[in-house]
Design a protein that fits this description.
Layout lengths: L1 E8 L2 E10 L4 H4 L10 E12 L1 H17 L2 E5 L3 H9 L2 H5 L6
Parallel strand pairs: 2-3, 3-4
Antiparallel strand pairs: 1-2
């Protein structure tokens, strides 16, 4: 299950994710609609408990799409396990070191 809370503050789109990003939840995540009224995106992973390879694929595609439309995209508070997964798949090398905070 995934729960997404979205709001904007100071020209920044805040996405708070809770739960798992996996084959069971990716279809729900694909429904996220981009906002045109902001310049930056802040994706909070503090409460993401699990991510599988389908979730990594979705996140890679999502971040690349966001980078086309916004001046800054950041993923913050990933757990140690998710950071390790990012390292294994060289996520930061693909999307840019500045994305992972």
């Amino acid at each position: 299950m995934i729960d997404i809370t979205q709001y904007t503050v100071d020209n920044e789109w805040m996405l708070m994710m809770r739960g798992s990003i996996d084959i069971e939840t990716v279809d729900e995540l694909r429904k996220i609609t981009l906002l045109s009224s902001v310049k930056r995106v802040h994706i909070d992973f503090e409460e993401v408990e699990f991510m599988d390879s389908t979730g990594i694929g979705w996140l890679l595609h999502f971040v690349r799409e966001l980078q086309k439309h916004y001046e800054r995209v950041r993923i913050v508070h990933p757990s140690e396990d998710i950071r390790e997964m990012f390292d294994v798949v060289e996520f930061a090398e693909i999307v840019g070191e500045e994305v992972i905070a």
